[in-house]
Amino acid sequence: MAVKKLNESTYEVSAVREGEELKHLKEHVLVHFKDAKVDGFRPGHVPAKVIENKFKKEIEGEILNHIISDEYRKAVAENELRPIADIKLEKYELNDDKVEVVFTIPVLPSFELGQYKGVEVEKENVEITDEKVNEEIEKLRENAAKLKEVEENEEAKNDDVVNINFEGFMDGEAFDGGKAEGYDLTLGSHSFIDTFEDQIAGHKKGDEFDVNVTFPEEYHAENLKGKPALFKVKVNSIKRKEEAELNDDLAKELGFDSVEDMTNKTRENITKREEARAENDFKNKVVEAVVDAITFDVPEELVRREIDYQINRFAQQLQMQGMKLEQYFQMTGQTLETMRESAKENAERAVKTELVLAEIAKAEEIKTTDDEITKEIETLAAMYGIDKETLLSDVRKNGNYERFIDETNYRLVNQKTIDLLVNEAKVK
Asked: How deeply is 99 buried, as exposed, middle or buried, from its count of CB atoms within 10 A (0-12, 13-18, 19+)?
């Protein structure tokens, strides 16, 4: 066996079996086929040559599996590798007296941490001005505006929230992903392709009409690229914001005693929020400084997994809003490929950060206690409005207990590691 390091995250293993060693391996594999059924022969009395000819592919597969299993186990143990995915077969050649196998193992990269304590980064000095307070109060006033259905004869216009049913057709045929009912669309948001929203403006509640659009040339679906389409649309309702006046009545409605109380408490809230944001920004800068100082190849397999995770999470968020990922692609002109490409940089960053923090935690021997895990679970349970026992019971029912505990432990170790870096960091 020969093991070669191709890069920080990939090792290549080469193995050869020949002569007596190959002969014994074949005999070992053939034992599993001794009772095979072959026309013209009684089970257990089929000549070896007949078995080799009839089950040639199966036997070769078994030989390959035996070699890879042996060499993989030895390569991992002898080189202290940390595999992160399945091996990739690069070469497999077999003849009567010799077998050559070459495969690669994706592994966690090894790297030098260097100096990760005492990094110097800037920290924002928070100052809350009257202007900031007034801006926040104005936002509270604007957010207090209520969506109110317009009069029956009023037409939809920009910034209105229009609830619609729609179905898309091309050449008279409905296409997949082009239909939805009860969809809330804010006109002027440019959520949908082409002039879809512009053609809804001017219509009234109950109107049924056609919207003509053209799909972008770079659209992901080949059958829709650059093609004209017709959407049959029905307006179910039109809602418009009704602005609120800033006075004591509004302040009380928002949970304050008066406008003066609203102003004072808003200043306090902004101060707490901005100080928390500045502290969080400082933490992020510290971690970024530590991670940026370390150079290594981020494993592609881990990046792919992170991209999958990000896209699945986005799809779940869309589903909660009543839209499928395919519909999102239809309406925005984006594709799964472009989405994956745009997520790649952030995914690489996330994976690298995770690997660096894990290595620091290992170097510093950062661990959690049972009490810390218990408290974290109690905090999570409180967030869901249940007690710890109910949460753990639900996790066990789903068969996720071990994974849940591991993830809780990982999250706590990760936070402890970040706290260490922040406490050791210096403010510029």
From this structure: buried
